[in-house]
Amino acid sequence: MKNEVIEYKSNGHPDTLTDLVVEACATALDKYYKDTYGRVLHYNVDKAMFLAGNAKVEFGGGEILKPPCFFLGGQASELNDSLRRVLRKTILSTIHQYLPNLGKVRVEIRSNNVSQNLSNICDSEEILCNDTSFGVGYYPFSENEQKVFNIMKELDEMIRRQEIPLGELYKIMLTPKGIFISAPLYAQRVKNRWEYEQYKKWIEQVLSKYGNVIFNPDFERGFPYMTLTGSSIECGDDGQVGRGNRYNGLITPCRPMTIEAYHGKNNRNHIGKLYSKIAFMEAQAIYEKYESLTYKRGVEVIIVGKIGHPIHDYDLYVKYGHKGEEGFEE
């Protein structure tokens, strides 16, 4: 696909970071329940918000005026003080793993205990769907999607090396008109507009092999994008579960997508999570088996399941990239 719009949000982006935090909480819940009860109880912590703090940022530095606050919602069985401590520790350690310079963060556990019907579904020996939902997937990645992944790798390496003061947050937006990258520079290491412009030009030159790359397009309008901590979570940019990258690591409005949040859902039986993963696996397997029949235009898959039904009892619909009338086949 040549005329695509593709978005990618880095791990330091408030939305992606919120996703990563709740996914870490899901992993911690799995372990806690197995260690304490011998099995995984019902939970879904796919509802969370990371509310931005406040900061004063200027060339050469600034100050944090108010720390950000992470609110964890959703449900967790047997939510006692011990489990709250586990979740709080997981939230803070995950945030500082990806934003080591962030400093103080407030945490509020607003999760509740679970409804009885969902608890009963989880208690069943047979793994049953705990929601009526679907997952979508496709294969292979387009040339432009691969291009975004390559740019991501280069930016991650720039952040790791810190030869230029690039924050941990960045966003890539590829459109038919160009590749736009937004990422704050560490204000402590940028003295003035001239230095900022030199860093901007250097990044654009390094990435120019991928096309028309514009770094921080708001700079020319008089708005240098800077940070004290590595991310805009310090001031003015909240994070929310489900607004980050999809399961495949991208946001692709020109491809089949679901608005179902992948992260934080129950790893055992939430099909909104599991079917997203399976759909991409099925699409790849079908494409590789029947590549000659798809005219190398790819395969798209939708998997649908129903609450209370066995997790392997799902409907699978496939759309081949064949010539002629398009549509999904059961």
Briefly, what is this?
The chain has six helices and 17 strands. The chain has 330 residues and is of the alpha+beta class. The protein folds into three domains: 110 residues, GMP Synthetase, Chain A, domain 3; 75 residues, no CATH class; 89 residues, 2-Layer Sandwich (GMP Synthetase, Chain A, domain 3).
* Biggest beta-sheet profile: 4 strands, mixed
Question: How many H/I helices?
Answer: 6
Percent of residues in beta strands: 15-25%
- Compressed to H and E, one letter per element, the order equals EHEEEEEEHEHEHEEEHEEEHEE
Uncertain spans, ≥5 residues at pLDDT below 50?
Answer: 322-326
Number of domains: 3
| Helical percentage | 25-40%
Mean pLDDT level = 91
Distance between the termini: 25 Å
CATH topology of the largest domain: GMP Synthetase, Chain A, domain 3
Structural class computed from helices and strand pairing: alpha+beta
CATH architecture descriptor of the largest domain: 2-Layer Sandwich
Output the CATH class name of the largest domain.
Answer: Alpha Beta
| Global shape | flat
How many β-strands, per DSSP? 17
General description of the model:
It is flat and about 65 Å long. The protein has 6 helices and 17 strands. β4 and β5 (61-66) form a beta hairpin. The protein has helices spanning 14-37, 81-98, 116-123, 143-161, 193-206, 271-289, and strands at 6-9, 43-44, 48-51, 54-58, 61-66, 69-72, 75-76, 106-109, 133-139, 171-175, 178-182, 185-186, 213-215, 226-227, 239-240, 299-305, 315-320. α1 (14-37) runs antiparallel to α2 (81-98). It folds into 3 domains: 14-123, GMP Synthetase, Chain A, domain 3 (2-Layer Sandwich), CATH 3.30.300.10; 133-141 and 255-320, no CATH class; 142-230, GMP Synthetase, Chain A, domain 3. Helix content is 31%, strand content 21%. It starts with 5 loop residues before the first strand and ends in a 10-residue tail after the last strand. It has a 4-stranded mixed beta sheet with strand order 1-10-11-13. It is α+β, with helices and mostly antiparallel strands.
